Amino acid sequence: MPVYVYEHVNKPGKGCTKEIEVHQEFGSEHFSKCPKCGRKVKRIITTANFTIDHLSGTSLKEKGFSKLVRKDKGVYEVEGAPLSSHKD
Ligand SMILES: [Zn+2]
To answer: Do residues 7 and 33 both lie within one domain?
Structure first.
């Protein structure tokens, strides 16, 4: 199921973070209000993890992509990045 990322247009309500992730059926209607606090939100990202996750890092590299791995909230790391470019 795709994950949609919404951002509170103004300040998030109590217990909400600025950005929220919502699992929704593909093609379902987007929220205009936060399901938690009811404040106004806008959709900012549709993550593509439902298509990318089953590709290996190697095949992504062949296609010219870097796979971003979510390490922590809001922190992403490039998986499979070369540690060194020395090839002497
Ligand atoms: Zn909220």
So the answer is: yes
Q: What DSSP string runs through the chain?
A: --EEEEEESS---TT--SEEEEE--TTPPPPSB-TTT--BEEEEEE--HHHHTTS-HHHHHHTT--EEEEEETTEEEEET--S-----
CA of 74 to the centre of ligand 1 (A): 17
Range(s) of the domain holding residue 10: 1-47
What's this model's pTM, rounded to 2 decimal places?
0.50
In a domain, 12, yes or no: yes
Residues of the chain where predicted confidence (pLDDT) is lower than 50: 50, 52-53
- In this prediction, residue 31 carries a pLDDT of 87
Give 22 Cα–ligand 1 centroid separation in angstroms: 11
CA of residue 42 to ligand 1 center, whole Å: 11
